[in-house]
């Protein structure tokens, strides 16, 4: 199963909106076939492993990181393919998270007399597809808020200059995070201040990334710009001239309406809250409908604060540089003042590691 999980991870940059899945087929203690899902529309991991075996897999044991699918989608159901192939036993890391189909793959296998075990390295399998599972169960993407900041939680000097606070290694990791995301959300303030592309710069990824994972250099995440005050003229900013951009503006009648402007730009009209700010949850719901599983937020302190205060950020990714920018520098967080420490719901620190001269902190919503 460890080998199957390692294989599955190879596809984590390319399989969305599908999960990353790996499969290993064993007979008499020897691996006779293995494979993983490369991208949506292509054969699933079980089929790739059976093809890799090259001969009959009858009587063999199949180790797979996710419950074999039971329905017809872009490809036929893998559970039925395993039955037809005559495997004797199937070991599954974790069940299908979709409540509409969960357990059906296992049932097909058991009804055919195949021995089934579920739960081997389940936690590792759940972590691998954390974003997919959340989006399927809750119909909302997994959200990571990324911030590059100083030790005193500042993101720029008082005049707005910020190149570069963090190290080259940290910036490489950000490109990797972008490559793994289906969409990147930012605010109009960031667009006006920085005129960013917010694309994946694949030439900045290390050679090790290309060796370890499948990478599609043609893939670029959808850029999503929240423009509550309608300050953005797309003709003035470079990001609107390439790739795909969803410009989100207030809806006058609280209806979700989209308008395709050109090959690069679509405007989505979303409902607002009582203060006239675009409803972030409505935007996330729309992205879920577009099969965006994983969303990265790269924004200024106000929008970051909204994600945190509304508990819409599943994960914080903080790149902290060993620098102090001072009291007048721009803060990373514009959250409301907390009246009591007792009412705080802390994030759970997942990892802290070195990133060049910086340190990289990942924290999960507790």
From TrEMBL:
NADP(+) binds at residues 148, 164, 190, 194, 228, 300-306. Pathway: Cofactor biosynthesis; riboflavin biosynthesis; 5-amino-6-(D-ribitylamino)uracil from GTP: step 2/4; Cofactor biosynthesis; riboflavin biosynthesis; 5-amino-6-(D-ribitylamino)uracil from GTP: step 3/4. One of its GO terms (molecular function) is NADP binding. The active site is at 46 (proton donor). One of its GO terms (biological process) is riboflavin biosynthetic process. The keyword Hydrolase applies. It comes from the Bacteria. Residues 1-117 form the CMP/dCMP-type deaminase domain. It catalyses: 2,5-diamino-6-hydroxy-4-(5-phosphoribosylamino)-pyrimidine + H2O + H(+) = 5-amino-6-(5-phospho-D-ribosylamino)uracil + NH4(+); 5-amino-6-(5-phospho-D-ribitylamino)uracil + NADP(+) = 5-amino-6-(5-phospho-D-ribosylamino)uracil + NADPH + H(+). It holds the Pfam family dCMP_cyt_deam_1. Its EC number is 3.5.4.26, 1.1.1.193. SUPFAM superfamilies: Cytidine deaminase-like, Dihydrofolate reductase-like. Coiled coil: none annotated. Keywords: Hydrolase, Metal-binding, Multifunctional enzyme, NADP, Oxidoreductase, Riboflavin biosynthesis, Zinc. Its cofactor is Zn(2+). Binds 1 zinc ion. Substrate binds at residues 162, 178, 198, 201, 298. Zn(2+) binds at residues 44, 69, 78. In the N-terminal section; belongs to the cytidine and deoxycytidylate deaminase family. In the C-terminal section; belongs to the HTP reductase family. Converts 2,5-diamino-6-(ribosylamino)-4(3h)-pyrimidinone 5'-phosphate into 5-amino-6-(ribosylamino)-2,4(1h,3h)-pyrimidinedione 5'-phosphate. This is Riboflavin biosynthesis protein RibD. It comes from Succinatimonas hippei (strain DSM 22608 / JCM 16073 / KCTC 15190 / YIT 12066). The gene is ribD.
């Amino acid at each position: 199963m460890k080998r199957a999980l390692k294989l599955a991870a190879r596809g984590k940059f390319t399989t969305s909106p599908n999960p990353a899945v790996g499969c290993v087929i064993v007979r008499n203690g020897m691996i006779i076939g293995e494979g993983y899902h490369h991208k949506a529309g292509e054969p699933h991991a079980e089929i790739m492993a059976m093809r890799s075996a090259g001969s009959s897999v009858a009587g063999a044991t199949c180790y797979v990181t996710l419950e074999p699918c039971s329905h017809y989608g872009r490809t036929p159901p893998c559970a039925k393919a395993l039955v037809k192939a005559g495997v004797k036993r199937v070991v599954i890391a974790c069940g299908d998270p979709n409540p509409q189909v969960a357990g059906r793959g296992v049932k097909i296998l058991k009804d055919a007399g195949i021995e089934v075990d579920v739960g081997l390295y389940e936690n590792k399998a759940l972590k691998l597809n954390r974003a997919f599972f959340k989006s399927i169960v809750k119909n909302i993407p997994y959200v990571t808020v990324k911030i590059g900041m100083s030790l005193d939680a500042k993101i720029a000097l008082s005049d707005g200059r910020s190149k570069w606070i963090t190290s080259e290694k940290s910036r490489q990791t950000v490109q990797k995070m972008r490559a793994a995301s289906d969409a990147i959300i930012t605010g109009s303030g960031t667009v006006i201040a920085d005129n960013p592309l917010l694309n994946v710069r694949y030439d900045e990824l290390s050679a090790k990334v290309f060796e370890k994972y499948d990478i599609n250099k043609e893939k670029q995440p959808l850029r999503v710009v929240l423009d509550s005050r309608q300050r953005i003229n797309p003709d003035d900013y470079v990001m609107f001239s390439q790739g795909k951009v969803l410009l989100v503006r207030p809806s006058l009648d609280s209806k979700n309406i989209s308008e395709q402007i050109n090959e690069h730009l679509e405007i989505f009209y979303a409902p607002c809250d009582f203060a006239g700010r675009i409803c972030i949850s409505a935007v996330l719901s729309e992205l879920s409908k577009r099969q965006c599983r994983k969303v990265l937020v790269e924004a200024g302190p106000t929008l970051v604060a909204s994600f945190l205060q509304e508990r819409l950020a599943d994960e914080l990714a903080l790149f902290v540089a060993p620098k102090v920018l001072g009291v007048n520098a721009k803060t990373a967080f514009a959250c409301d003042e907390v009246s009591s420490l007792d009412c705080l719901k802390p994030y759970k620190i997942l990892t802290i590691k070195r990133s060049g001269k910086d340190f990289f902190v990942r924290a999960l919503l507790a």
